[in-house]
User: Fold these one by one.
Assistant:
Number 1:
Amino acid sequence: MYDYIKGILISERRLPSGNVITVEAGGIGYGILTTERTLQELPDKNSEIKIYVSLMHREDAMYFCGFLKREERDIFEILLTVSGVGMKAALTLTDEFSVTELIGVVISENFRELARAKGIGLKSAQKIVLELKDKLLARQDYLLPENETEPNVIPDYAQEAKSVLYSLGYSKEEIEQSIKNALNIPNIKKTSEEILSGALRYLANNNK
């Protein structure tokens, strides 16, 4: 069992088959599949790096999948326990969502949000929610980053507002911040219309 590889970052490559980094440790260069999210957080080349890895076995080859954060590797392995979810789909989901976001959408059963990820259909998203909700509820304290104590769960009554904001072209960060702000408005009614109205007011005031 491999937990992590600690060595020198030699290269990073964006290939048609996926993102690959090479880490040299003990005179061996390890090619490690990873996400765009991880590539964006890499240190400079020739820096020392610690990559948490998962060894994948296939009939014709073995692969390392690696992440800078332990919790990303762990939730990647949990995703692989879902029937029908393979390495490619698990990498896609850990790229599209942070650990906190992924826990949040699964616990809130927001399978439509999961289905936004490339190659993840509604049936696969529903299966992920069905098979992982209880697992993530039981393990969220271990999986969440040390500075976070709970997942970013948007209540069910705010999901429709979130979908409308996505259709209007707002970014994920803008949407989450605007809805969070709307939910904190005193005496606001817990309806999608009220949440959407509050979120749009927040966005309008902050985009002047």
Number 2:
Amino acid sequence: MLIMGGEYMKKLKEYFFEHTQINDELWQQFSQNIRTVHYAKGDYIYVKDNIWTEYMYLNYGLIRSFIISTEGKEFTRQFYFNTNESNVGNLFVTDFRSILTKNLSSRAFEVLEDCELHVFTHSEVTSLYHKNHTWEKVGRIFTQLAYIQMDEYYCTLLTLTPKEHYLKLKSQMPNLCKRLSQYHIASFLGVNPVTLSRIKKSCDL
């Protein structure tokens, strides 16, 4: 991991200004606490049984979070990337549950492509809440966006077949699918690579 300072966080600033009503003064107040970090393909950012204390915004690259069952099977929980196909769940590389509950994370985070992230701590965010009520509104906005994305994800898991889930993923995120290995797509759908091959062949018929 390489840590850098003084980076111009254009994408993160644009994202905040698009979704909130902060001004340049508030942005300066927030951005002075941000670190810019780089990870290489194959690195692990956080591993299982860590307690998360940071929020990470992905500027570029590709990351996945995954869990491992008691039988040793991997299940990809989320992919993180920053393109026009992304939503809030893809942009923030974070275990929100671990941060908010201060409990151990059940997930590991693997870097699939070299990446750059902008990092700020939960304690810094909490401090901003006390300095200006606007930041509390910002927090609510991002919480609502994250909840909507999470609810859609679980509805997909509960109501769609693996084939329907694959078709939805391919429709919503076609460029992401081109960057992922068959193994990672299969682990996201909850099937093995052989089953995924059958699904893909049936879609081409």
